[in-house]
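Training component of the fellowship. As part of building independent skills, the fellow (R.M.) carried out the full modelling exercise for a liganded target. The chosen ligand was 2-acetamido-2-deoxy-beta-D-glucopyranose. The inputs are recorded below so that the supervisory panel can assess the work.
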Amino acid sequence: MSGTPLRSSHDLHDYYETNYESSASHPPESPPPRKRRQKRRIITIIAVGLVAVLVVIVVYFTVIRKHSSSSASSSSSSSSSSSGSSGKLATGGDGSTVTTANGTQFTYNNSFGGFWVNDPGNPFNNNAQPNSWTPPLNTSWRWGVDRIYGVNLGGLFVLEPFITPSYFDKYSPSAIDEWTLSVAMAADTGNGGIGQLETHYATFITEQDIAEIAGAGLNWIRIPIAFWAIETWPGEPFLAKTSWTYFLRVLEWARKYGLRVYLDLHAVPGSQNGLNHSGRLSPVNFMSGNMGLANAERTLYYIRVLTEFISQPAYRDLIPIFGIVNEALLGVIGKDSLTSFYLEAHTMIRGITGYGEGNGPYISIHDGFTRLDAWANFLQGSDRIIMDTHPYFSFGGIDTSSIAVNDDKGNPGGKWPTQACNAWGPSINASQTAFGVTISGEWAASPNDCGYFLRGVGSESTNPDCPTYDNYQSYNDTMKAGILNYVLASMDATRDWFFWTWKIGPNAAGVIGAPSWSYQLGLREGWIPRDPRTAIGKCAALGLTPNPFDGTYADWATGGATSTIPASSSAAFPWPPTTVSNANVPLSIMPTYTSTGPVTTLPPQTFTAAPSSVTGPVNGWFNAQDTAGGVVTVAGCPYPDEYNGIFTTTPTAPCTGPSA
Ligand SMILES: *[C@@H]1O[C@H](CO)[C@@H](O)[C@H](O)[C@H]1NC(C)=O
Ligand SMILES: *[C@@H]1O[C@H](CO)[C@@H](O)[C@H](O)[C@H]1NC(C)=O
Ligand SMILES: *[C@@H]1O[C@H](CO)[C@@H](O)[C@H](O)[C@H]1NC(C)=O
Ligand SMILES: *[C@@H]1O[C@H](CO)[C@@H](O)[C@H](O)[C@H]1NC(C)=O
Ligand SMILES: *[C@@H]1O[C@H](CO)[C@@H](O)[C@H](O)[C@H]1NC(C)=O
Ligand SMILES: *[C@@H]1O[C@H](CO)[C@@H](O)[C@H](O)[C@H]1NC(C)=O
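Fellow's submitted model of the complex:
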């Protein structure tokens, strides 16, 4: 479908200048006769002219004409090929010039028929399309038919040592997670203090990144955010509320380029997995330990506040998936307790949004690092819950099988493409039937855990091949072809996916030290396909079972029928749960919060060029009937540290008093 990319007249101009002028300034050894050169020049000029005319005609009919008539709610129907401060609707396809908010310009490259839409009069205009085969935001996603080709914006609003190593280098050795990084930055007032985090939000991902993502044939982005985007409580050193503003800015760009968004709550109070990217390296204190229940209550509150924002009509079609807790560690928490939490979150969310297609987001939960088949028949009858699996071979111990060799049938990638097809295709296929919508929210181009800071600050992979993997400038063609084939097999086997991650920043030495985790770098260097659709059929081509999913989900899995959770499930998974792991006191006297505080409503963006009839209804809170309070502490309740749960005063009675 992509065919020969239709180049813009701008590109042709560059091409012409480069080719013509270089031959003029560096004449070949024996220059062709003057007449032949002149003739060639005339032919070139005519050809360039013809193509330019063609480009203008195609752009006019496919983009400008189609859309100037379609922006019903726009106050203007005028079009131009660059966005700007004119306040008028603008749109552009391949080769168009985009002017960013700060006045800089770049060229939009999209050979897949995608076009951006900038509509200052209606900042919620959903007409943009990232490519010709993805429905525009104003048209429903067809689950089981349309394929998700996504990337994560990892390390943007939840920092990770290997994604932005320069900050962790700078505050080495004290900074090992965002908690300690925030403390170290705050103390370093001479270098911008904690404001350095805001600089990071403002610069790490720009509009041009989002344009590049759409131009790469991708159609979704998964955006990890942390609870401190909403608020922090006393004692928490995280930068409060600031990332929310920058999150809204990314949403604005996603809408402009037609990308759908999977909002991923990646870090919750107390830590849901104890990993550095949960905010704090610590024992799990979400649904585990003495603070397990209180942290879960606070998390439910943040899920509620986010649901109220993203369910507003202005955001509903832009953000069709909400991942409510990233990678909660099932092995520590226990499946029944975790299921109680998910059922309570489902009930709360659907209480806000209503049930069935179009009412609020799909609710995504992670497999908890257990086998997918353990989730078969989970909460049958629930409304649009997605199973999110993160298929990596990276963290399963050392396997030095080379990726820079051909297998015995001559396929690049050694054993790795076959292993991806076999490990992931059938299990995901089975889950699509036995669970419902199943997606791969994270995966990478690396078969191992090599990479600068990939295992966190202070721990390193012991794989002896890491020097080869870490130094991408030395990759030979066999290595690149091997990684590419592994990537294609992974895409085909998982079907609906989000690569982890779009971008890896340089370390203090200026080097990208975890290269196969960067989609952007792989595109440039040749181990990520320019067109993700080329992955379709890869497993079959390797002689393996493809993911044979036929695209049919259970009715309730896609909001098609009235959903009801059978009473047996509700009874089996009560809220609060019957047990919380690793607690020292009975559940009945564990610390809890009360919902009697003020509610935080997330602030909407300001759009000065739009009339209040458009912006007025967007107040951050979808359901006015949802009037419960915000979560606050109970007077007299002896709360231990949120991240370690160690009591200084052991409770003897339930926390049932008034708010503190
Ligand atoms: C589009 O391509 C041009 C020419 O190759 C390049 O200069 C520009 O940066 C590209 N734009 C984006 C958004 O990558
Ligand atoms: C949706 O956007 C497309 C352009 O992508 C446009 O042609 C169509 O008219 C729009 N539909 C609605 C209902 O606005
Ligand atoms: C302006 O924005 C562009 C892209 O959004 C970014 O690359 C550039 O650094 C910014 N320039 C300034 C001066 O802030
Ligand atoms: C830190 O996070 C990285 C991924 O960013 C992971 O590989 C590593 O195991 C984590 N380490 C710890 C101790 O959390
Ligand atoms: C795919 O899933 C369906 C439904 O569970 C099952 O009948 C079929 O055997 C599976 N195919 C493979 C190859 O796993
Ligand atoms: C390519 O690089 C890999 C990894 O360094 C090496 O094992 C292999 O021999 C090289 N292949 C060729 C053809 O140079």
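The panel noted the following from the submitted structure. The chain has a mean pLDDT of 88. Residues 288 and 580 are 6 Å apart (CA to CA).
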